[in-house]
Model the fold of this input.
Amino acid sequence: MLTIESLCKTYSDGTEALASVSLTMDAGEIIAIVGGSGCGKTTLLRLIAGLDQATRGRIGVDGETISAPHPAIGIVFQEPRLLPWLSVSDNVGFGLAKLASDERDARVSEALARVGLGDYAERWPRELSGGQQQRVSISRSLVAKPKALLLDEPFSALDAFTRASLHEHLLALWEASRPTVLLVTHDVEEAVTLGDRVIVMRPRPGRMFRETKISMARPRDRLSPAFESAKRRVLLDLDASLKNPDALERADVAPGAALWW
Amino acid sequence: MVDAAARQEGLLEERSHARPFLLNGFKWAVGVILPLTLALGWELAVYAELSNGRLLPPPSRIFAEFVSLARSGDLIFHASATLGRVYAGFGLGALIGTALGALSGASIGARRLLDPTLQALRAIPSIAWVPLFILWMGIFEASKIALIAVGVFFPVYLGVADAIQSVDRKLIEVGRVFRLSRFAMVRRVLLPAVVPSWITSLRGGLGLGFMFVVAAEFMGASEGLGYLLVDGQQLGKPTQIVAAIIAFALLGKASDSVLMLFARPFLAWQDTARARL
Done:
């Protein structure tokens, strides 16, 4: 279980990026966070990953307080960040240096097979498409078997078709070990497709605003009324988060209008 | 549509196989056009008695001198002596330059300690070390190798330190996420990331090594291509001087090619214009 208690982050120039963010995630849960630019989504992920230090507050995994990169936490960035001098398989096995080579090879092969890149093991990252590189990046994080996986807008640079395909790959990988997943995204449809809960953050300073529980079974039909309803609710929350508090009550406001600011 | 795409793909593949052959065929030809034209022009000028070719002999006389030196074994003897000094000095300078460059690039503390002193030493013309090296190490091999090592050290040190400081922060974060120790971060992220710059600095260092070996052999060597230069000057043999200069050029180019041959497998991952040209 991943817990965040009253997490605050103020930068040295006085900018308050996060103000008292608290969140509890159950094991195996997928939580999607959406919010306007500058609401502290990426800051929150970087603090949990241990890449930045919180000003106040606590982050815990299964009761253990963490303040630096921890083996229980994996992260996938917006860009694949593959090491260009390593082959695809060496990139996937990058975090497994302490394992015996047999076990490492087996885990890497299995991870690559799961994302449909078994035949690409000896290729260079530059020989892969953007979507394939991101699949390798996700495999690299999951092959280390973290208890929590942080995803920082990992599909934002990809086209809609590739993104939908990667959602399927991600869910297949998640099914295998069921880590807790915290996904930051700008895409409300993506949040509703993947999340058990969708949390909307509001900016200046970044804080939790509203939460929508998504109780549909996976895989989710994006054209179903239930999906549309959940998406509409998140969009209304998003509008409201961007200082439009009447949005929930106003029928004439097009949901998602705030996204086009 | 699919067939057309496949045919197109096949065509591209065919071209990609044919291209290196064509390139290899013309690469050498293009590279020798300029020197051959200049040599031929000078040969014709001397043949037509537009010049007597006494101070700058025509290619035919230089070639004859080159063959004569090669047949007598002098060329191999002196070239071996020069190469031995260059490689020993290069190895020493590159090793220390890489180690201190990596230290200075990866550690702020080490950089604060080392960099000001090394930058100050870099400003000293390397030839200025010659009298001191002779006093310290005598006139034989040690002082010559030390001088070459000093020449090689600075470009390698600067290249490695600067390249490490320029490594993409995002890749370093990948190492941090996987909790690499400082040593592992240097070995697994920083050093591989700087290999292209390191090889460029080694090539620069090797070139300087060939420059400094001449200065070192002017210090009073009895063997080496530098000795042939001095000997040619003192005995008024311009053919020997030019033959030695050509030998330097050939050895320098050959050494650089060998370095690149060893380096190429470590650069195969690059997606650069250089790899495609």
Q: What stands out?
A: Chain B touches chain A at residues 170-171, 173-174, 176-179, 184, 188-189, 192-193, 195, 266, 268-271 (CB under 8 Å). The two ends of chain B are 31 Å apart (CA to CA). Residues 44 and 62 of chain B are 14 Å apart (CA to CA). Chain B has a mean pLDDT of 86.
